[in-house]
Sequence to fold (115 residues):
Amino acid sequence: MNTLKNKVQLIGHLGYDPEVREIAPGRKVARVSLATHSSHRNANGDRVSSTQWHTLVAWGRTAEMVERMLRKGMQVAVEGKLQHRSYDGKDGQKRQVSEVVMHDFQLLTAAAKAA
Fold:
């Protein structure tokens, strides 16, 4: 049997420009949100659409490429792995998040130019 891997592939549009931080000299992390869309017909035959928002995180060289190449509104194909983690919020409450850690991406369309 082949080894199963944690692999995520998404195609969608970026919700905002990447937020990039330098966490150590020469080590960056980038965060951005990706919207994916789907639709289906309900029991009445009406088309129903939904949008899912995914938090994407990139580290190191991938973060540097995200910072240089990606902007709000661009359509991209993303490949990475799903990661769940928890942290303590500013209010002391335990929070849990799910993120896609990007390993690779491909630009599908450029952002629409402002009129």
